[in-house]
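hiii so um. not sure if this is the right channel but i have a protein structure encoded as tokens and i wanna go backwards to a sequence. like what aa goes where. can anyone help
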């Protein structure tokens, strides 16, 4: 399913980063082969951060620079990793500015818990508090920052260009229903960014059942009979 998905992607480029539930070795194994399809995999924290800078081309011209950071369980190491890759990206952007005469956008992607979450997320998941890092300084230096790890799409610290992408299906055990899922589309043009939210239709209803085994069994049976 994974390779079939990559084969059917309609985009000319794809960047894949590992998260806290991923197998680094599984993701990284086909890394060099996938580069031929313009699919770039960052499975673990590289000893050479320049390997985590991915230039995106439009024709022969570099149209964007992606700083891709894999999940790191040590908060301070994760912050340093982001900073190291961003410094390389900024040097590259300065070099490209002398060629193109305009700034190439820098996009950061990562899988971490950040401070400044909306709706008291840290109180809902106690583990987030200990592993959260302040990425505001990094966010101020990039044109767009997309994070994974939290399953709900939201801005961070009220910054429109600093967001959790969320998941396309409902993965939040604290909430019922499947509404509110969306994809964020960002367009860079003339040195400015246009951020647009595209809501995802509900393709599969998710129902939450609670109670004793007998109660849940009966409710499941009823749902099957009703054709849900």
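sure thing!! here u go:
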């Amino acid at each position: 399913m994974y390779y079939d998905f990559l084969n059917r992607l309609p985009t000319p480029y794809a960047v894949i980063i590992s998260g806290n539930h991923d197998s680094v070795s599984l993701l990284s194994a086909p890394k060099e082969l996938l580069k031929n399809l313009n699919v770039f995999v960052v499975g673990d924290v590289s000893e050479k951060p320049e390997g985590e800078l991915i230039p995106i081309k439009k024709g022969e011209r570099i149209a964007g620079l992606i700083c891709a950071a894999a999940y790191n369980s040590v908060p301070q190491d994760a912050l340093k990793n982001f900073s190291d890759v961003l410094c390389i990206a900024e040097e590259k952007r300065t070099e490209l500015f002398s060629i193109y005469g305009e700034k190439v956008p820098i996009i950061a992607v990562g899988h971490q818990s950040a401070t400044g979450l909306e709706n008291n997320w840290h109180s809902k998941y106690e583990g987030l508090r200990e592993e959260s890092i302040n990425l505001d300084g990094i966010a101020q230096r990039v044109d767009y920052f997309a994070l994974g790890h939290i399953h709900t799409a939201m801005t961070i610290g009220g910054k429109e260009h600093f967001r959790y992408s969320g998941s396309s299906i409902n993965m939040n055990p604290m909430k019922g229903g499947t509404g509110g899922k969306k994809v964020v589309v960002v367009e860079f043009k003339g040195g400015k960014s246009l951020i647009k939210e595209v809501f995802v239709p509900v393709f599969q209803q998710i129902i939450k059942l609670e109670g004793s085994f007998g109660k849940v069994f009966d409710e499941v049976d009823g749902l099957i009979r009703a054709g849900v």
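oh and The mean pLDDT is 86.
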